[in-house]
Amino acid sequence: VPLAVVPCCHSRKRKVLESVASPYAKKEYHKILSHRGSMPDLVDRLDTVRMVALENAGFDVEEFFIPETFTGKNRLILGF
User: 28-34 contacts: CB < 8 A, separation 24 or more?
Assistant: First the structure.
């Protein structure tokens, strides 16, 4: 089943993650939060982990960007 992920609210994921995430996601998210960097860098790292998780689940993954005219958070991750 194809799916689309429109990532947002990266800084608010911790509470949700602690209760429902896989061990892989928890480990990767902890590494991301432990990294010292700017928020855009952390956003890119988190979205990369999301794409890898989809690939590990058997999806072919593509990344697209929605024009900033519509939203400043413009990344779209598709899994086929």
Answer: none
